[in-house]
Amino acid sequence: MSFAIVLVVLAALAFGIGLLFTRLQAVAKKRRLDEALSEARRWVERLAGQVMHLTGTNAAAKQALADASERYTAAGSQLDLARTVGQAGLAKETALEGLYYIRAARVAMALDPGPALPADAERARAGAVTEHRKVEVEGATYEASPTPGHDTPHYYPGGQVAGRPVPEGWYNRPWWKPALIGGAWGAGAAVLFGSLFAGMAGVAAAQTWQAGGQDVFAPDDVGFDDVGEF
Predict the structure, then answer these.
(1) In terms of C-beta density within 10 A (0-12 exposed, 13-18 middle, 19 or more buried), how is residue 132 classed?
(2) Is the pLDDT of residue 224 over 90?
(3) N or C: more exposed end of the chain, with fewer CB within 10 A?
(4) Binning pLDDT at 50, 70 and 90, where does residue 22 land?
(5) HSE, side-chain direction, 13 A CA sphere, residue 162
(6) What is the number of other CB atoms lying within 10 angstroms of the CB of residue 198?
(7) Whether pLDDT at 58 is above 60
(8) What pLDDT was estimated at residue 217?
């Protein structure tokens, strides 16, 4: 009889410990989520303040602010729907990207760009445009510049688009947008990348672009065997 009582007590104790452990896990999970949501909300609110108080005074600034506003709307929606730490992190990253566009708009208007933003490994791997380039690919003209201008009003903060690095810089057209929207690059995108950035310091080589930016930088190693329509 006493042995049966001991078993019952041990079972109750094990159940209690398991229940306590589960509750502690739930509390810790909720705390992590609350912290992630709070962090994301802080960046979204910072972006909101900039979007609402800045007005573009030239084409480049207006375009950058339009892109920032688009990211603000997206980040707000992502934050409202966030139920996991990962989803909250996505809202934060979207807001941060919007703040890069804010900095670009301020630069385009010759204003102080404001405090530095957190570093990002993907942006670092993508590199940045370091010189003005103008090329023609498949009958279309593409320009890239390290600074905003009348002919290069489209800014990109740098990073991965559909698994490939796009360098930070100012462009005459958002050539990365089809991949950003569709999630895949056209066959001729590699040719465009090679033509626009061949030999440019600070930008990954063509083969690196094909590999998704994971290889070391090799600016002089440019070339493609496949030529497709962009």
Answers:
(1) middle
(2) no
(3) N
(4) confident
(5) 15
(6) 17
(7) yes
(8) 39
Question: 80: Cβ–Cβ under 8 A, 6 or more apart, which residues?
Answer: none
Strand partners, 168: 128
Q: Report in angstroms the alpha-carbon separations of 143 from 51, 69, 169.
A: 27, 24, 10
What's the farthest any 2 CA atoms get from each other in the chain?
92
Please give the structure tokens belonging to residue 205: 């080589």
Residue 138 amino acid letter: E
CA 176/CA 68 separation, integer angstroms: 16
DSSP string over the chain: -HHHHHHHHHHHHHHHHHHHHHHHHHHHHHHHHHHHHHHHHHHHHHHHHHHHH----SHHHHHHHHHHHHHHHHHHHHHHH--SHHHHHHHHHHHHHHHHHHHHHHHHTT----SPPPP-HHHHHHBB--S-EEEEETTEEEEEESS-BTTB-EEE--EEETTEEE-BEEESS-TTHHHHHHSS--TTHHHHHHHHHTT-TTB--HHHHHTTS-SPP-TT----S-----
Contact assessment for residue 215 and residue 208, using Cβ atoms and an 8 Å cutoff: yes
Amino acid at 66: A
Q: Note if the pTM is more than 0.90.
A: no
* Range with the poorest average pLDDT among 53-57, 105-109, 188-192, 223-227: 223-227
**Residue 225: CB atoms within 10 Å:** 5
Q: Are 87 and 75 spatial neighbours (Cβ–Cβ below 8 Å)?
A: no
Q: Which two tokens stand for residue 146?
A: 């390290």
